[in-house]
Amino acid sequence: MQTPENFIYLIISLFFICALLQEFWNYLLCETKLKSFILDLPNKRSSHLIPTVRGGGAIFFLFASLSFLILSSQKLLPWYLTTIFTISSLFISFIGFVDDLKGLTAKKRFFCQMFCIVLNSLFFYLYFSNTLAELLILSILVFWFIFSLSLINFYNFADGINGYISLQFIASSISIIIYTYLSIINTSNFVIIFSLIIIPFLGGLILFLRRNVFKKTIFLGDTGSTFLGFFLAIIFLLCSYYLFKDEKQTNYLSPLYILLTWIFFSHIIFLDCATMIIAKLIAKVPLHIPHKLHIYQIVSRKKGFTHLKTTALFFVIQIVLNILFTYLKKHISTFDFFGFIFLYLLLLTIFLIKYHLKSLNFKTEYIS
Known about the structure:
Layout: H1 4-31, E1 39-40, E2 52-53, H2 60-73, H3 79-102, H4 106-128, H5 134-157, H6 164-183, H7 190-215, H8 221-245, H9 254-265, H10 267-283, H11 295-303, H12 307-331, H13 334-362
Antiparallel strand pairs: 1-2
Helix pairs in contact: 1-7, 2-3, 2-7, 3-4, 3-8, 4-5, 5-8, 5-9, 5-10, 6-7, 6-8, 6-12, 9-10, 10-13, 11-12
């Protein structure tokens, strides 16, 4: 295994390699004939007015897979975990890219996503079994199956304005990593592993955001949004492994605590989309009918915010709440802390359901 100093040089090198790869992909999409095959044409539901290239996130899986391969080569992660993650990432990204090119039915997308999640669950079971009790592992993976399937689709649903879900991904991923680091006792290898996982990926993501937010010449596409949801779910699950390795973190309520943690660190997107689905069911509006009634879309219209202002606002909100969450965890008992988080999420869920019901009833011009 390399020295810490060598790992620093490696991480910095990977950051710039991923950035260059993303910029090359941006060039291929925006400046070559490939552009004509993958244009997103504006319609009445769109937030853009001119045809824009989508598929900017099609190579995100390369950045994450490269990090996992290096971690396995240094014996910091088992090879079987890296192999299945790489295959699943490629598959999810490919399905998303095909969807960007010619469109796929919701059933086909859902089946492919479910297949990848089940596959990863089986191999993570092997990984967790070295440390945790079987019942605990099964509880975590059942929660993770439901959560990750939801998160992948919610990231896809919420991809409506430039930079929104990319910055939400950054806020959620970095927050859960810092929270985990501060919560565990044995931090050996943790910093190296998660620095290798997230920092090179950010190199590519930042170069994508340059074209997406500032130049406005490229979109994530389904391939990028679904992968970001999947990758975030993987990061959450890996962090949970480290939380459970710490004996003081483990009790019979731990799986529920972990689920609440996952939801909280991604709750701006997660609850917005989940409560919209519930509101549609209550209002008897077909789930497949698109709309422009996500909270960030309503705020953007009411306040007249640009995409950049709206994206920055919700990024800051998620970051601030995540910091408060981490701070509170250190200063009150675990039971009281998660009781408070549960109450907050419950009240917010009720409020959002009522808000979405009102939106569905009175803003039919934004439903198509």
